[in-house]
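Sanity check

After download, print the first record. It should look like this:
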Amino acid sequence: MSDECKILDPTAFGLFFVALVSLPIALTCILTYGGVDNDIGLYLGDLLIIASIFIFIAAIAAYRAGSNFGFIVFGLVALGVFFAGYSGGDLYINVTLGIIYLVALIWSYRVGNPKTLTLILLTTALIFIFGGLQANTGEADVWLLLKGIAALANFVLTLYLAFALADEKLPCY
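Expected structure tokens:
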């Protein structure tokens, strides 16, 4: 395992919960854009709220492990996931969250985190930015599809990195 993947904080734990919420977001966005009736949205808000608690626990555990980056980013993600579950979305708040995740992306790159983690921050930012733009129109338009694609990419990246960190046998990029 490379040195950059020997993360002492509970990153894998938090990433599994981010993956857990990313896939249903992706499915509901893509299916709704495609005109496919689905009930995912009926339960998604509750899942996001509950998962945000576990992501916040990862933030607290990262703090206790001495990881400022993990603490701040998982705290921000917990807030964004809670907001998405509680409110569903708003143009300005979602875009603000997206910009904050882009700032965290720059920070991640500068401190030398695994490139996959930096890409996860990009897909997370895109989920919120596209979600805000879609909430502004209120239609099942291209912003909904782009949000779904970003969420699907986020699912794949977070699940891979979570397994790579937890397994310690997969290559960590």
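If your output differs, re-run the checksum step. Summary of this record's structure: The chain has one domain: 8-167.
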